[in-house]
Amino acid sequence: xxxLVESGGGLVQAGGSLRxxxxxxxxxxxxxxxxxxxxxxxxxxxxxxxxxxGGNTNYADSVKGRFTISRDNARNMVYxxxxxxxxxxxxxxxxxxxxxxxxxxxxxxTSSEWGQGTQVTVSx
Length: 124
Description:
Elements: E1 2-7, E2 10-13, E3 18-26, E4 30-39, E5 46-51, E6 57-59, E7 67-72, E8 77-82, E9 91-102, E10 108-114, E11 118-123
Parallel strand pairs: 2-11
Antiparallel strand pairs: 1-3, 3-8, 4-5, 4-9, 5-6, 7-8, 9-10, 9-11
């Protein structure tokens, strides 16, 4: 079994910064793409940023230039540095990772795993 645990959310004023962290643990053979999603009340979950194993990144237009995603492959962690926060960034932020597990007889299986979410609230 694998687990993703986010931390770092909270309440911040507009223009402030927060850093989210996500740690993956459990029976992990390898981790492929990792990313952050968010879901605001009454809205669909949306991709905020993603990063490949090699460090290639992708950002939603709404956060480009303000958010930075990074990862530590040795520690199975992914981070989201959020600067110049706006009230519209208020949402529950979820960590996501494509995790490969190794089973008996040399079988491997990759699944998309999610964290429990961390609340980010930006006041105006």
